[in-house]
Specification:
With 474 residues, the chain is mostly helical. It is built from 22 helices and 2 strands.
Amino acid sequence: MVRQRVRITLHIIGSFLKYFALAYIAPLVTALYYGEEKWYIYLYALLLTLGIGLILEFRFKTEKVIERADGFTIVAFTWLLIPLLGTLPYVFLGLGFLDAFFEAMSGFTTTGATILKVVEDLPMSALLWRSLTQWLGGMGVIALFVAILPRLGVGGSQLFDREFPGPLPERLRPRFTTTARILWAIYVAFTAVEIALLYFLARLPLFDSTCISFSTLSTGGFTPTTASIGSYGNPLAEYIIMAFMFLAGMSFIIHYQVLQRNWKVIKDDEFRLYLIILVVAISLLVLSEGLTSYREGIFQALSIMTTTGFVTANFGSWHSGARMLLLALMFIGACGGSTGGGIKVVRALTLMKHTRVMMMRAISPKAVIPLKYNRKPLSEGIIRDVISFFFFYVLVAVVASVTLGFLGLDLETAISAVAATLGNVGPGLGGVGPTLNYASLPGAAKVILIMCMWLGRLELFTVFMIFSPRLWRG
């Protein structure tokens, strides 16, 4: 059983890497267009990734059908190997391996935490690669492969579920390949529209508009500038970005339903709570920092809650209450079915409803009080999954924060660094604040935060399952 599971895992990952190698064409063309001397590094990366993919695909060829347990190993190791190979351009440009791996993992998991002190020191091709990794990781590299590789068949559903392990999985169509294609089509369309608006309306350079749009829809946060969006000083561009951050933080299921003119989905319980939290957070931030800073308050509330991580103000110097509010938003995160990270609004809503039901049952022990979501009862299994996830999420955050504390990080830096990486947010507070970076952290701390990014993107269980002996025994 172990040999069969390893074999199919390596075979499928090899197939994925073979197609992933094509992603290097974009920075290669960019390097040639701008006349960069080291254009060949992307050709080397492409050939190396393609070679590894072909070797794995054909060396471990198997007719075994993908089972549920295989989904955990394939997804977890794909999300480890693709960022690992994504480090190649950074290593070829002179970054140390650990820093390069940190940057690549941050990109693919759409975290946006960086070890680069001066982003502009990178060539244009590498800046595009940073944003492209986030764009590919936003909707999910495996969702893309499921969309373009129909031969995965029924097994594609196991991979899709593991990459999007939210508490309330929904299909747009009975076939997962169709669902993946629809989601990617909406994702691509939103990206194209944002590029056009930033370029034609806000008058940002086309290259910057492209990189920023890649990072917005993926809720990633990488930009071609060290000072993030604040470096442009362009209010119209900020408003456009705010609109698309808001859309990216919503469930893409809602986008599809709205496009189908099903306006009833606007009454979705999670979407309404998403709006309420944003309105309350924005109001508190604006009141805290003054009415003249309303644009910064709106932008940062959207950026942090959707886990995008763009910056227009040094919120690390804001009132302590405002910083604590932003830290809370890092943990809550965006909606389920979005490209955002964090615990997710739908889980917070489920926990709130469950608490209310438990209080009512304490008064009337014999009463049958179902927990409803969108007027439909939730199964006990889903409720248990949500409670388990929340407990596990907090446990990982506490253990990681305490470990960082023992490595010499102060309390604010340790907690916010974990919240920012586990929630795939990017900038934190203290020593990893919006005007700083993660470069000065000890190597061990970077390894822990890389693990947090990996765990956060796959929502914990997919990664931890591969360490279960029972999974490998079958």
